[in-house]
Please model this.
Amino acid sequence: MQVITIANTKGGVGKSTLALHLAAAIQRQGLSASVIDADLGQRSAAWFLERRYARLNGKAGEPISVMTLARKPDGTLVQRFTELVKAERDKGRRVIIDTPAGGGRCLNAALDLSTLVVTPINESLMDLNAIADDEGRPGALGQKMEAARERREAGQRPKLEWRVVVNRVSPLISRNAGKVGDRLRLLAEARDFEIAGHLVERMLYRELFEEGLTLFDLFRPGLDDVPESARKARDEMQTLLTGLGLPAVL
Model:
């Protein structure tokens, strides 16, 4: 069963928002999904779920299952994380892992368990350094991915697929956007990943997250007057889902 890790060693790139939207997209297709929040400090996904149940009075529409890891002094965090991922996967659920900035102690285990890694980056040359620097030397995330792929090859396991999403894209054409795009395409070839799509910067995502809602909640039956920005965001998300090999939400 599919295990998707949302990973970037840099913070502030929208990992939790993306993880929850992927889970919602999967579940609106009648499939089951679990989000595992491996960020023990921020707990963004868990916070979202609390807000969601409060906002919808306990009726969350398509259920978004979120599980968190508790801090314990016994040093078994990675083992408990691994067992949790395997247990959800073995139930036939699609598992989406939301990792913290810096990767955290569970990142290597997450990469070893995953069938797909999705990396959101901001439209910034600085963000690309997590993958590789100007000289082509792998950054913090690039090193983790390289090591994970080597472990797979040594164990004769299928190749770990990697997709990069450009997040918070400016709606205006700029020289910076062109530079980011050019360098990202070079990195995609050098580091062996695909560019899955982009999401334009919209205040809508922040407003929805604070309410415990996903973009798809705006398109439930009976809801009219959906803002144009939401319709454009939905089209971008649909394209992104296709780029990730996931079912699009109608």
